[in-house]
Specification:
By secondary structure, the chain is α+β, with helices and mostly antiparallel strands. It folds into 2 domains: about 280 residues, FAD/NAD(P)-binding domain (3-Layer(bba) Sandwich), CATH 3.50.50; about 110 residues, 2-Layer Sandwich (D-Amino Acid Oxidase, Chain A, domain 2), CATH 3.30.9.30. About 35% of the residues lie in helices and about 25% in strands. It has an 8-stranded mixed β-sheet with strand order 6-5-14-15-16-13-18-17, sandwiched between helices. The protein has a 6-stranded mixed β-sheet with strand order 8-2-1-12-20-19. A 3-stranded antiparallel β-sheet has the order 3-7-4. Strand 15 and strand 16 form a beta hairpin. Helix 1 packs parallel to helix 10 and helix 10 crosses helix 14. The protein starts with 7 loop residues before the first strand and ends with a helix. The structure holds flavin-adenine dinucleotide. The site of flavin-adenine dinucleotide has 33 residues, from helix 1, strand 3, helix 9 and helix 10.
């Protein structure tokens, strides 16, 4: 006979931003027993910054104070505004977009945030060096097979295992056209630099509090923003390319000469030389990373007792700074559903309801982000490097991401869950 009092057992595969955020949320619920399995030796990764827009802040708020606190303990800095300019003459310095924030958008060092997200989680719930390689349905749920030869059984599995993970394959099948991410046609190179050093080279004017500065140029883009309670800046250079990167080629070594070459069309730029000096002065270990996206959208994010969230579901280019934000929204909606689970059989409806409300929401920014990248690289069709056209094409591109009414979204998710539960009782 089934034990009616036992906890519902949930496994999360992947200890990145999505997985750790979700686990922190689920810690609130005594009826759930949750464990996380991460393939790497530890759950914190090296990495640059992520910006968390108002939608991400709202999702964190709904998830609870522990999550909001983690962001602030990680040294998040409010972006008071974000300014993009033309980076080369004849229109150098012309402002093409100026987003005035209300302080709700924040920039945070990714590794610092992951480390804060780990702190509230009891060690017994986290397992590292646990690469998931296979999943099998069994009478009492799903059996997980790990690379080290071990197995575990859970009632449900949430794949937060990013673009390199396994869970998307389990859901879609190994031959599905939407399985693999595609190279989006951009690579970028990032460097973290002490703010003092950047000020010495570029001058104080680019470091007014909380301002993100970007420069649009010929087929490429430069940007910097402030992190770590104002101690560090993140420099980003991004380039649109016709060259292809094959899947599995995750980075290329890079140097100052390569950077100069990539920006060689920026003749007569008042900012390029300084930015290259800042970039390379503090970091001799530069790498170029390709940008991947799920340009072929998944027709579903779930298969019975398994679902995917975050980049495993909808990887997007970083041009609208939204991949992490929508991953946090995913976590919030699953938290909303799993809170209501009374027995393991309801997991399937919870995952279906999650899929219903989240798929349309999360696939739109995948497409929008790539177009934004082309515009920021001065290659928007009919836009080019014309300041007025750039202004028009950029000014409202973030509205659909930030304007989500999170409380209404939660209500929609709850309605979908209630409908699916009623149906499954009738069935
Ligand atoms: C350069 C860059 C800049 C970005 N900037 C922003 C930004 O400013 N704002 C924003 O919102 N988003 C940004 N993003 C996007 C954001 O970083 C991602 O959307 C977000 O990190 C996704 O989190 P995730 O947890 O889904 O995936 P990941 O962070 O990729 O985590 C997946 C985890 O799963 C583990 N894993 C993989 N396979 C397995 C397996 N088989 N078994 C177990 N574990 C496994 C991995 O080791 C990893 O720890 C940026 C992305 C990039 C690349």
């Amino acid at each position: 006979m089934e034990d009616q009092t036992r906890k519902v057992r949930i496994a999360i595969s992947g200890g990145g931003l999505a997985g750790l955020t979700l686990l922190n949320g689920l810690l609130k619920y005594p009826h759930l027993s949750v464990e996380i399995f991460e393939s790497a030796t530890n759950c914190s990764e090296r990495g640059a910054a992520v910006s968390l827009g108002i939608n991400a802040q709202n999702a964190l708020h709904e998830l609870g104070p522990v999550l909001e606190e983690a962001v602030s303990l990680a040294g998040a800095i409010p972006y008071n505004s974000s300014r993009a300019m033309i980076g080369l003459r004849p229109n150098a310095g012309s402002i093409v977009i100026e987003l005035k924030g209300d302080g709700s958008e924040k920039g945070v060092h990714r590794a610092a945030l992951l480390s804060e997200l780990l702190k509230p989680i009891p060690q017994i719930m986290t397992h590292t060096n646990k690469k998931l390689i296979r999943v099998q349905e069994c009478n009492d749920g799903v059996r997980l097979f790990f690379e080290d030869g071990t197995k575990e059984v859970f009632d449900g599995l949430i794949g937060a295992d990013g673009i390199h993970g396994y869970c998307r394959e389990y859901i879609l099948g190994a031959e599905h056209a939407a399985l693999k991410p595609h190279f989006a046609g951009f690579w970028d190179c990032r460097s973290l630099v002490p703010i003092q050093k950047a000020k010495e080279v570029l001058g104080e004017k680019y470091f007014n509090d909380g301002l993100q500065h970007a420069w649009v140029g010929h087929g490429s883009y430069l940007m910097h923003d402030v992190l770590d309670n104002g101690e560090t800046i993140q420099c980003v250079s991004s380039v649109e390319t016709d060259e292809n990167w094959s899947l599995g080629e995750w980075k290329r070594d890079f140097d100052a000469e390569g950077l100069k070459e990539a920006f060689s069309k920026w003749t007569d730029s008042p900012i390029l030389e300084g930015m290259i000096e800042v970039f390379t002065g503090s970091n001799s270990d530069l790498r170029a990373y390709p940008q991947w996206e799920h340009s072929v959208h998944a027709p579903t994010y779930t298969k019975r007792w398994v679902c995917v969230i975050g980049d495993a579901a909808h990887a997007m280019t970083p041009w609208q700074g939204s991949g992490a934000g929508v991953a946090l929204e995913d976590a919030m909606i699953l938290d909303t559903h799993l809170q209501l689970i009374k027995d393991p059989h309801q997991i399937k409806s919870a995952f279906q309801a999650y899929d219903q409300v989240r798929r349309p929401r999360t696939q739109k920014p995948v497409d929008s982000s790539k177009t934004t990248g082309r515009i920021f690289c001065g290659r928007g069709p009919g836009v080019g490097l014309e300041p007025e056209e750039l202004r028009k094409s950029l000014c409202s591109r973030w509205d659909f991401i930030y304007a989500l009414d999170m409380k209404q979204h939660k209500r929609d998710a709850l309605d979908a869950f209630a409908d699916l539960n009623t149906q499954s009782v009738v069935d």
